[in-house]
Prior knowledge:
By secondary structure, this protein is an all-alpha fold. 76% of the residues lie in helices and 3% in strands. Helix 2 packs across helix 3 and helix 6 crosses helix 11.
Amino acid sequence: MSDPLAQKRPPELMTRIVTAAGLIAVALAAIAFGGLAFWLIMIVLGMVMMAEWSDLVGATANTKRMALYALVVPLAIMAPGLGAGPGFLALGLIGAGFFFVGATTRSSWLAGGIVYVAIPVLALLLIRQQKDIGLVYTLWTLALVWMCDIGAYFAGRFIGGPKLAPRVSPNKTWAGLIGGMAAAALFAVAMHYGAGLGKAAVLATPFLAVLAQGGDLFESWLKRRAGAKDSGTLLPGHGGVLDRLDGLVPVAPVAALLVVVLPKLVTF
């Protein structure tokens, strides 16, 4: 006999879709508002990411709390209009937080979490505050990772084939990588025609999609090292916040470098 309770449970794919749709809706609203609303969302996500990172690297309750205190200082100073904003002072405080946590806990892994979390937050805030192009290029940075995840998931599921890194993440395939790159690139082309995304950004998108997959693989390796299936349980169907944002961690700083340091190139 079939289990009537099992029939009532939503399929895993539907749970993933509903959760992802909710996260995307919140992200889009924060991007649209910008300013303090976007910063506040980044602060919340950053603190949760740091908590999950601390658990994965085996931090004790006390050292985890210390790391969270050290992280909140540079995140707070990034507040637009209230603090110094995302800039060199925040970058310096990130470095100070790294050395403080490393020196007091003797854990380079825990200290590394300060950089792992704070640099992408700084990068996204920098992109969003750019005059005229901030909204479009923040959306591009986030959406290319989303589309990469979606394309990789469906290509890997329906095409399969050789594994990408079986020792690190047995479910990831080369087909998934190519599918993720293609989905991100197609979305960038749509943004070019629909929102004025620069041609150089479109051309850079497949390479950033590879970075997103690399971030995903790194977090998979970290979870395997910790003996954990997911980084947390906050997001139904997805696991933790790190599980959703791992691809964004390496993409955001590179995107910020392109948008903030080389704006004429990326907007071409």
